[in-house]
Every structure is written in structure tokens, then in C-alpha cells.
Amino acid sequence: MPIKIKRIYLPYEPGDGYRILIDRLWPRGIKKEGSHIDTWMKDIAPSTELRKWYDHDPEKWEPFCKKYYTEIKGSAALEELKKKLREHATVTFLFSSKEEVYNHAIALKKYVE
Asked: What does the alpha-carbon distance between residue 8 and residue 96 come to, in Å, rounded to a whole number?
């Protein structure tokens, strides 16, 4: 089951498979109609406190990942995500951050793989 990662602002492609928005907040400028989002799983996103603490600071990347994994470990959201991953051949995690290297989508993909 391949997991892809993509900014929500990039165009939809049929190869994206099942598209899951994994942000806590709805992305600015994106309309729900026509967005090709199959599921919005806001509860799998980092808590507001963790997101604000991290602030996409690369020096905080490793501690951020550890804290994020602690937040989602054993959660209902993680179990629901695992179910979606089993049900679909290809899944794309959608995120809105401008940071494309150090973001929670990368961390989440690493965790579930």
C-alpha cells in the first residue's frame, strides 16, 4: 500500500488514489466541492499546542516527531487511518503547510509505514 504525500494546493491526479486531508484546520482558499478529498481526518493532526511549539523549526524536528507519535499512539484516529490504509491500494496524505520537508505528513507517513 503506497502512501503518497502532497500539498493540498497541487492539482488532483487520478494516481493519488484515496486522498486524506490530515490537517486540523481546513486549508485556506480550498473549497470543499471539487477538492477531491475523500476523508478529512483532523484528529490525526498534531495538537494545536504541539503545532505552535514546533513552528516548522528544523532544529525541533526530532523532538516534534517523538511528541507527535506519543499523541497519536493508540488513538482512535490512528486506528481509523490504519483501516483506510488497508482498504485502499494507494493513499495520499494531503497537507497545507508550505514546509515540504519537515511537516507532520512526513512524520505520519514514517510512523505508519
From this structure: 6
